[in-house]
Known about the structure:
The protein is α+β, with helices and mostly antiparallel strands. Helices cover 45% and strands 19% of the residues. It is built from five helices and six strands, in the order βββββααβααα. The strands form two sheets. A three-stranded antiparallel beta sheet has the order 1-2-3, with no helix packed on it. The protein has a three-stranded mixed beta sheet with strand order 5-4-6. The termini are far apart.
Amino acid sequence: MRCPYCGSEDTQVKDSRPAEDGAAIRRRRICPDCGGRFTTFERVQLRELMVAKKTGRKAPFDRDKLLRSFEIALRKRPVDRDRIERAVSGIVRRLESSGETEISSEEIGLQVLEALKALDDVAFVRYASVYRDFSHVDDFEKILAEVSAKIARDPGVDG
């Protein structure tokens, strides 16, 4: 593993432990050349996924981009980092085990919406406003009615 600080290819693993409920291995590394310390994560990748964009362009699937989508929607929300990681890992596992090598960006967006709906209602509305391209106040009213109906069905759900 190349050192992110000096570029040396001679880094050493100082500590390894399971992460993300055993779905990854977290490794603490040190560079003997510059003394820099950094963390890497090792995950199983079942297959190489491609994302088919709405424009027709195709791009390699990027787990970090998926994670950033969650982080943006959940910014300043009281959701534990481990729950976010589990949601992202769950989506990645479903995509990889679907048998498809090409997934539409729309399918990924729908899975993110479902996961956010279970994690946090405010984040769900934030993401939906961008994903569904809200352009009028009515769009917000519809999604808020949907969230309100969910809370009415299950009063124990916090939003």
